Amino acid sequence: MKNGNFGSTKGQSGHDDPILKVSNLHKSFGALHVLKGVDMEVRRGQVICLIGSSGSGKSTFLRCLNFMDHPSAGIIQFRGKTIGSESGKLDGVATYRYKESELAQLRTHVGMVFQQFNLFPHMTVMQNVMEGPKTVLKVGRAEATARAEENLRKVGLLEKANEYPSRLSGGQQQRVAIARSLAMKPDVMLFDEITSSLDPELVGEVLGVVRKLAEDGMTMISVTHELGFAYHCANHVMFLHQGKILEEGSPDQVLKNPNAERTKRFLDGFTGFYF
Amino acid sequence: MRDFTWRWEAMPHYYRVFLDGLSVTIQLSVAVFCFAIVGGMLIGIARHSERRILNWPATAFIEIFRNTPILVQLVWFYYALPVVLDQHIDGFSSAVIAIGCNTMAYFAEIFRAGIQSVERGRWEAGYALGMHYPQVMRRIVLPLTVRRMLPAFANRVVEAVKGTSLASTIAVGDLMFRGQELANTIYMPFEVYTVVAGMYFLAIYPLILASYWLERRLALTNGVTL
After folding, report:
1. What pairs with residue A23 in β-bridges?
2. B122–A118: do the CB atoms touch at under 8 Å?
3. Residues with Cβ within 8 Å of residue B80, at least 6 apart in sequence
4. Is A164–B140 a contact, with Cβ atoms under 8 angstroms apart?
5. Is the pLDDT score of A81 beyond 80?
6. What is the mean pLDDT of chain B?
7. Using a CB-CB distance cutoff of 8 angstroms, which residues of chain A are in contact with residue B132?
8. Which phi and psi angles does A169 have, rounded to 5°?
9. Closest by Cα among B154, B153, B147 to B219
10. Cβ-Cβ contacts under 8 Å, A114 against chain B
11. How far, in Å, CA of B127 to CA of B135, rounded?
12. Most exposed among A20, A202, B53, B77, judged by the fewest C-beta atoms under 10 Å?
């Protein structure tokens, strides 16, 4: 996106200020340097897919965006405001110190759905979806119920409202997790390989929900192995390799006519998907 | 045993003594439980914390109380603590503090193990909604922890109730103490201690049954897996 490549933006891209802006992001776990300077700009309504082989750092990058993992160095700005306060330099890149209260505040705007669903097993589906608005946003019971019903309807699971998560299939659990995140009315949604732990026949129902969200104009960043989904839903695709963005651009460009040799080899590994 | 005649018929005359003792035992147990559960939860959370300023004192507390005999703790709190604090502490309070601290140390370890058993993903799901640590703890982690630790917890409660009988050594008038007094007065140790044992059983067994019932109930409301 450094190249200003927005040629294929399908969603509603309103005013041009990015919601989320990442500059020169680095992340190390001990001696392991996972992210080596990643940049990204996310504008309203954009659907961005991160692809790359395992170990490329794509999940780590996504987890840095809502500070599930704290970046080691580099800037993350949300609506123009830099998160954290500068605390020094690491190899010439600014480092930041983060306050938990600021991060918690940010996370109410940046929703996340996990590979493993992570529903709260002691709560019903309804209670799961009401939990965020009730406990975090402190909205009243009626409002929380209304939000939960609206979002459960959106993912097609209102009739399961009183079930416990353990009674649902993986695909259903993941749809509840999406509804739970949506109930916070986030500005951006992060999807971390949300279909990777599902049986193949359950992938479709989850991707269907996400595709509909994209069509409704939800801004989202998705780490995915579903290249068909990336091709049809994303308006920007980023290919990560060894902690850096090797190639990015429209789905057509990156998935059909990649420039980099490494991207071509990665895509050759996927024989089973069609455009 | 050849010439020994059981004289059970004498026991009903002393029912008040037994009931008074039982009442003190129950009061002691309830006080110990309330004291230990609150403290145990806080110390368990501190023990789980990565901050040394919380973790180290919590660990020290747990290890001190787990690695010294409860009877020694009891006697220490009864005889030594009043000197340290320069304040009179009655036997009942000493017993609550000593048995309470001992139980607290075990409760803390049960809480810590339970907290640790909650998968990373559940914490993260809470944080991802914008929750703060105390909210994640209160709304997600502790409710899951309590369900998982119930069997270990029930065991410990029973140990604590039985442990209150040691309070008799510092002249707290519990069931054991009143039994000893009575046995020494009427010279019927066999009968008296059998009644005492029976009464402990009747007090404790319902606790075990309650814990089974609670376990089943929690399992039912939560489907199969937690």
Report:
1. A75
2. yes
3. none
4. no
5. yes
6. 92
7. 100-101, 104
8. -75, 165
9. B147
10. 121, 124-125, 128
11. 9
12. B53
